[in-house]
Amino acid sequence: MTTLAERLAAADAAIAASAARAGRDPRDLTRIVVTKFHPASLVRELSGLGVRDVAENRQQELTAKTAETADLAGLTWHFVGQVQTKKARAVRRAARVVHSVDRERLVDALDRAGEDDAPLDALVQVNLTADPNRGGVDPQGLDALAERIAAADTLRLRGVMAVAPLGEEPARAFDRLAGYAARVRGIEPAATWVSAGMSQDFDEAIACGATHLRIGTAITGPRPPQD
Ligand SMILES: *Cc1c(COP(=O)(O)O)cnc(C)c1O
Questions:
Q1: How far apart are CA 123 and CA 212, in angstroms?
Q2: What would the pLDDT profile of 62-108 be if each residue is shown by its tens digit?
Q3: pTM of the entire predicted model
Q4: In Å, what is the CA distance from 4 to each residue of 9, 48, 74, 83?
Q5: Is 57's C-beta closer than 6 angstroms to any atom of ligand 1?
Q6: Which of 34, 100, 217, 226 to mutate to test the pocket of ligand 1 (most atoms within 8 A of CB)?
């Protein structure tokens, strides 16, 4: 058995090694720990180990965990799951970054939910598969969606996010994502974030230009069964 501290250190060392192989500065990479299905106590432990960026993929769990860890200073919460339009306000209240903006109605709902708070950082999730039921906007709709975010007063377009499809070389899929990221930078030059790479494929993602890695099990260990 390894400890959480050991797994975190091993993941960070592997990320640094991938960055070195890709000729990239590890300081340009943000390692986000995906804590879904784990109790808030894990977030507390991670915070004690110096982790600052954490992510959830379900709104109710996000809302509950942010409340339970509200006393921890300096945590940035990311949301990486499907957002129901009617939950946009709750997601916005709890997360600083939403990686999974996949449709114009959601842009409008997130924008309307903005009050006097800081702008919400938003990434366009792109579907890299041929299956329209997978998360993310079809690449054909990418420009219109990115433009919609860029035009929203209370949102800040930051870049793109994707999950590598099953059954395809991650490097090939992340290569396409790099092209989509360039398209979004053509719309908003400051939108430089590329959220890609999970426990099994962060090496390929870093080689293809990822800036934000979403790592779960490699750091947290296996997830408890979901309810
Ligand atoms: C769960 C999840 C991750 C982390 O996955 P691991 O394979 O456990 O690293 C990353 N991104 C999204 C969108 C997820 O839902």
A1: 11
A2: 999 999 999 999 999 999 999 999 999 999 999 999 999 999 999 99
A3: 0.97
A4: 9, 11, 20, 29
A5: yes
A6: 34
